[in-house]
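Input record (one chain):
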Amino acid sequence: MTTTTDLDRDLAIRLRIDALIADYIHCIDEDRLEEWPDFFTDDGRYHVITRENYDLGMPVALIYCDGRGMFEDRISALREANIFEPHVYCHMVAALKIIDSSGPEIATQSNFSVTRTMPEGEMMTFLCGKVFDTVVEVDGALKFKERKVILDSRRIDTLLVIPV
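The corresponding structure, as predicted from the sequence alone:
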């Protein structure tokens, strides 16, 4: 039987995770990418995988970061080495589902779409798919231990350089 205390706990967890995801996407959409690694634990993992590879159990990722150093290197390369056409993202995240909150790690799933806008004003749906997150509390704050982004399409029309 579900008690009021259980419902309050579930709602509190949902609201905290929703706030974490909102802060995360605003960090990316507002080009505050140097803050991006702070959303993860020091040993955090971030993978962007096509649905085809995910469904086949193939671990090949379009973006693969394992540990804070790789997160920081990704942003450093984006700022200093990569050459790409300027653009901005606008994320839409929906259907947050808490899969398991019974232990210290909270497993969630959500859907997303990213609209990309080019300097000339052209907009398009750039990416969409789902995200599987593992969230933990570190020093009173929620952080991602793992983000696994599953892209619906294996075709991306340009370099995937900015985190999703």
